[in-house]
What we know:
- The protein is α+β, with helices and mostly antiparallel strands.
- It has helices spanning 122-133, 176-189, 194-202, 213-218, 243-255, 285-301, 324-332, 358-376; strands spanning 7-9, 18-23, 26-30, 44-48, 55-59, 77-79, 86-87, 89-93, 100-105, 111-115, 138-145, 151-157, 162-168, 203-208, 259-266, 273-275, 335-342.
- A seven-stranded mixed beta sheet has the order 11-12-14-13-15-17-16, with helices on both faces.
- α2 (176-189) crosses α8.
- The N and C termini lie far apart (66 Å).
- Zinc ion binds next to loops.
Amino acid sequence: MSEFAIHIDSAFDSGNIEVRAIHGATATLAIRRDAHSDFFQWFHFRVSGAAGRELVLRITGLNAAAYPGGWEGYRACVSEDRDYWGRADTAWDPHTENGTLTITYSPESEICWFAYFAPYSMERHHDLIAQLAAEPGVIYRRLGQSLDGQPIDCLTMGDGPVQIWLQARQHPGESMAQWWMEGALDALTDPANPHGRLLREKATVHVVPNANPDGSRRGHLRTNAAGVNLNREWHDPRPDRSPEVLAIRNAMDETGVALCMDVHGDEAIPHVFIAGFEGIPGITQAQLASYHRYLAILDAQTPDFQTRAGYPIAPAGRGNLTMATNQIAERFGAVAMTLEMPFKDHNDLPCPDQGWSPERSAQLGRDCIAALAQWIMG
Ligand SMILES: [Zn+2]
């Protein structure tokens, strides 16, 4: 039976793969670039007809991907039920066909799914928004719309004077950021969660679970429908190229911002870490001390966070004000931060079966809310 060729499909929400050749249960593949852009790294596809056979999936041309350093030590995500996402055996060879990732996997089922990280669909996004909008004390607002005409959704909760903003998925391929949002929103709205209750008493929390719905649905790594990296637009967002950022920044201008977390994933670094705003021209010692206090609280809160590994810190006065974290810190005098979760694993506490996962992302969201509740008590 093994002479029958497998089938590979990707014409669905956040699907992305190009099929170059299929022979039996071996496929040669490539990743499609983000529209109007050179970025690519996100893949998401389905394989059928492979039950009981060993699949060999070769994704080629990856030295030209956005972050070639992301492939070393990376294992592809795989699911047979679209609920539990494990990891498949994966080998990286930078010297074959301009960089080839070879995934081998023997599915029990006729259909299995592969992705760069466990996908988070726009349908699940709408389920999340509908569920949360019906919760007592939660205000839903449509901040604007994307170039493809999708809504930019915002949920606001709490009665306190401190304005906190949480946003995720400016970079749509970083789907762990929206799994983080599920955990954070659960902590914020569960009546039995004391951290969420305290935070809603002391603060008003504004949550944008998906800042780039077009890139998400199109299966992009990093950009919106126009091929624009939204996290380089915060100094001057434009209606014709970055309406998503314009809508969110205008809403922030109305409320002001005391603290903002911008949630992301990092391709290369196998740790959870946070990047700050050290390079902004208007930085104050009080602002910086408040930021460091949050890092220390979160570090004590969960072993799934650390402060040793991360990005280099920008020199004084050299912060890039096109990025959300720097622009928000400068514009509002806020504590702003970019939270990065790994595509690989958090090597301080590795999980061989799943690597970094949706479940761990959601738990980190809950822990970040607990840390915020402690931070706000000063
Ligand atoms: Zn990112």
